[in-house]
Design the sequence.
């Protein structure tokens, strides 16, 4: 540990340790001075006094290193969200807040670093804010009345306006009169899940006009529009003088369209993630509230069964040794049908025990499935996740008046516990199994009860432990299958074959992202028309080894 005559580092260490925050101090040479245990745990390192930052965080991105340099110049800085690869091979979304560390003379003595772990949802949101702030294109958020709610710094670079001065101004006030009608038409023609491209002249702060190519999209429930514009050229009176050729416009339009597609996907994935997180919290709360009374009932049923057996045993002794009871007793025995009670009461208690067990299984499955917002990888039993999914979907699997029960075949290998995001894997299982049930139900609507009974709908879950330290989960059905043209698009965002209102086209897209991006695995779909469809999930047993 380095000591300073001007600063009591021992006292500072004690204060920081009490805070429970991931904080570290580096001197002007970016060598470690002190650190808290949470900071050490977060990066998975064991620092030594005087060890260089480059050794402790060897995969720090250039944007972080630039932020450290700014901080050493005396400016508080932020390291933007980044999925950092750690020394042990793990990857985590992290961001850092940097503050200059001054000595008593006011000179910058080093950097105080506060590191924060982000979940996937926060990382996406904050990463998009970084894009908004640093994009060279014009970004703007406009409400239904055409009022600018937010613009990015590029507006100052290209059009000379201070972004704060443009807020709450009418966007059409800056449009050249000759393009006013076409711009209004673009707004009016825009529909959800679509975008429009157009160009107009926008007024610069100096009074001249600039040709801009715009792409506009509706956000959420239609309350706001999001626009991305690229300044093409300046012009005075003749649009032809500044109008770029068609090939350039087409290229720019495609670039802006791709950017907005990414924005829309990010937005809907954030919405979907938030919905699933809220669902997880709701399910966990319900499961917790049900669990206490169920445990009370289940625990007392054991004693009730013992007490009942004791009482029935005593009654048997009375009947054996007092075979000629008082007439009143005989009359009451006949009135309550004592023989039937003695025979039915044990069966009644057994039935109640089975019911209580069933409720306990459902509660356990709900609690297991509800872990949707966990941000850390954990060693998990994938079979529990598959079984929980089947329990939750039992209402759709069991027999109905129109068809027999869907047959479930489970072929489970002896799997080790797998390092994964448990809740997200459960979400993948739920998406794939529910889609398979949809396909089976669609097939059965065209068959009679007798036909389904003769050739039942079947769902097969197979797990396998592979020699390359991965596990494979296969989920297959014997439905009608899908055409090759559909199979090739099945993981694309917003692609769905379901009727309006029954599918968003995000379930399999998000499942693919969870498996491939978050777990470094593979998700494949194989299908044969008339025979069925199979989804094949393969993920590493240890995430750090796969990296």
Sequence:
């Amino acid at each position: 540990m380095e000591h300073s005559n001007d600063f009591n580092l021992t006292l500072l260490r004690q204060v920081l340790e009490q805070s429970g925050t991931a904080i570290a101090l580096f001197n002007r040479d970016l060598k470690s001075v002190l650190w808290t245990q949470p900071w050490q745990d977060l990066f998975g390192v064991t620092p030594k006094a005087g060890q260089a930052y480059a050794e402790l965080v060897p995969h720090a991105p250039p944007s972080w290193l630039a932020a450290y340099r700014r901080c050493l110049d005396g400016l508080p800085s932020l390291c933007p969200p980044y999925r950092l690869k750690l020394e042990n091979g793990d990857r985590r979304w992290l961001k850092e807040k940097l503050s200059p560390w001054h000595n008593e003379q006011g000179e910058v003595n080093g950097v105080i670093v506060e590191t924060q772990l982000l979940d996937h949802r926060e990382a996406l949101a904050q990463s998009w804010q970084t894009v908004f702030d640093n994009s060279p294109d014009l970004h703007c958020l406009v409400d239904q009345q055409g009022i600018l709610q937010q613009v990015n710094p590029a507006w100052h670079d290209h059009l000379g306006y201070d972004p704060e001065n443009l807020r709450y101004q009418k966007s059409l006030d800056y449009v050249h009169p000759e393009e006013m009608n076409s711009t209004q038409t673009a707004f009016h023609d825009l529909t959800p899940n679509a975008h429009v491209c157009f160009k107009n002249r926008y007024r610069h702060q100096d009074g001249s006009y600039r040709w801009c190519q715009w792409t506009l999209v509706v956000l959420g429930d239609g309350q706001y529009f999001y626009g991305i514009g690229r300044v093409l050229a300046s012009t005075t009176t003749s649009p032809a003088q500044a109008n770029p050729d068609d090939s350039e416009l087409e290229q720019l339009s495609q670039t802006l369209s791709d950017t907005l597609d990414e924005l829309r996907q990010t937005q809907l994935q954030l919405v979907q993630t938030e919905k699933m997180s809220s669902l997880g919290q709701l399910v966990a709360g319900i499961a917790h509230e049900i669990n206490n009374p169920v445990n009370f009932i289940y625990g007392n049923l054991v004693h009730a069964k013992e007490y009942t057996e004791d009482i029935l045993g005593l009654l048997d002794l009375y009947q054996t040794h007092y075979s000629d009871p008082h007439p009143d007793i005989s009359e009451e025995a006949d009135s309550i049908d004592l023989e039937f009670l003695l025979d039915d009461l044990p069966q009644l208690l057994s039935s109640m025990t089975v019911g209580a067990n069933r409720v306990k299984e459902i509660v356990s499955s709900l609690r297991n499935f509800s872990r949707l917002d966990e941000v850390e990888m954990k060693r998990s039993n994938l079979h529990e996740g598959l079984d929980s999914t089947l329990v939750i979907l039992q209402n759709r699997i069991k027999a109905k008046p129109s068809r027999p029960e869907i047959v479930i075949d489970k072929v489970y290998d002896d799997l080790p516990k797998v390092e994964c995001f448990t809740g997200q894997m459960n979400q993948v299982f739920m998406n794939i199994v529910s889609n398979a049930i949809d396909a089976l139900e669609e097939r059965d609507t065209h068959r009679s009860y007798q036909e389904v009974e003769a050739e039942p709908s079947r769902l097969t879950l197979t797990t396998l432990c592979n020699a390359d330290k991965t596990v494979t989960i296969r989920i297959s059905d014997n439905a009608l299958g899908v055409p090759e043209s559909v199979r090739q698009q099945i993981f694309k965002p917003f692609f769905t074959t379901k009727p309006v209102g029954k599918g968003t086209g995000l379930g399999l897209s998000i499942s693919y992202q969870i498996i491939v991006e978050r777990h470094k695995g593979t998700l494949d779909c194989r299908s044969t028309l008339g025979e069925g469809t199979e989804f094949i999930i393969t993920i590493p047993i240890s995430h750090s080894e796969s990296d």
User: Anything to note?
Assistant: The mean pLDDT is 80. Residues 130-244 form a domain with the Beta-Lactamase fold (CATH 3.30.450.20). The two ends are 34 Å apart (CA to CA).
